[in-house]
Design a protein that fits this description.
Residues 26-45 are annotated as: Disordered. It contains 1 helix and no strands. By secondary structure, it is an all-alpha fold.
Length: 45
């Protein structure tokens, strides 16, 4: 029974955190127009 209560409390805390972050919204700012490099550039041919 204690495990069930602990799981319910943990789930409630996780949901509260998710809803709080959702309510606050994304951080202010702009995205970079430059593409991100995902690989190491090779030698130029």
């Amino acid at each position: 029974m204690r495990a069930l209560v602990a799981a319910a409390v943990g789930l409630a805390a996780a949901l509260a955190l998710v809803f709080t972050i959702t309510a606050v919204g994304p951080p202010a700012g702009e995205t970079s127009p430059e593409p991100l490099l995902t690989t190491v550039p090779g030698p130029k041919k």
